[in-house]
Design a protein that fits this description.
- This protein is of the alpha+beta class.
- Helix content is 26%, strand content 45%.
- It has one domain: Nuclear Transport Factor 2, Chain: A.
- It contains three helices and six strands.
- The protein has a six-stranded mixed beta sheet with strand order 2-1-6-5-4-3.
- Helix 1 packs antiparallel against helix 2 and helix 2 packs antiparallel against helix 3.
Length: 131
C-alpha cells in the first residue's frame, strides 16, 4: 500500500491530485466525469456571505480561462474516508494570482467516487508569470 493508505484513501488522494492538476491546466472535461450531476460549489466571501455555482457553471469557469504554464502548485492538507462511502479532502491550490483553500466532499455513487461539494475561500497567491 501507498504509505499505509487504504485503497479508498489512495483513490481519493489520486482524485485530489487530479483535481489540482486539472484546475492548473484548465482541463474542464475532467470535471464532467469527476463531479456528480448535483455538484455544488460554495465560495465564502469573508463577510458572512456566500456565492454558489452548480456543475455547469463550475465547468464553464474552468473552461473559460487559459491553462497556466509550468507545474501545478498545491498541497493536500488532510484526507478522511468514512465507511468507504464518503470522503473529504482539505487542500490548497494556486490559480495565480490567487490561492484557493478548498474543502472537497466526495461520495461513492454507482461504485465510483464522485465530487459532490466544494466549499472554498480565496487568499493571495503567487503572482502571474510574465510571458
Amino acid at each position: 500500500m501507498d504509505g499505509g493508505k487504504t485503497p479508498d484513501e489512495q483513490a481519493i488522494h489520486a482524485l485530489a491530485e487530479k483535481y489540482c492538476v486539472s484546475l492548473h491546466h484548465a482541463r474542464a472535461t475532467v470535471f464532467e466525469d469527476m463531479c456528480h450531476d448535483r455538484f455544488l460549489m460554495t465560495a465564502v466571501d469573508g463577510a458572512g456571505g456566500a456565492v454558489y455555482w452548480d456543475k455547469p457553471a463550475f465547468i464553464a469557469r474552468v473552461a473559460g480561462r487559459d491553462p497556466f504554464p509550468g507545474d501545478p502548485s498545491y498541497e493536500i492538507l488532510g484526507l478522511d474516508v468514512a465507511g468507504g462511502e464518503i470522503a473529504r479532502v482539505h487542500l490548497w491550490v494556486d490559480i495565480p494570482p490567487r490561492r484557493f483553500e478548498d474543502h472537497l466532499g466526495f461520495f461513492r455513487f454507482g461504485g465510483e467516487w464522485k465530487l459532490i461539494t466544494k466549499v472554498f475561500r480565496t487568499m493571495a497567491g503567487p503572482a502571474l508569470a510574465d510571458g
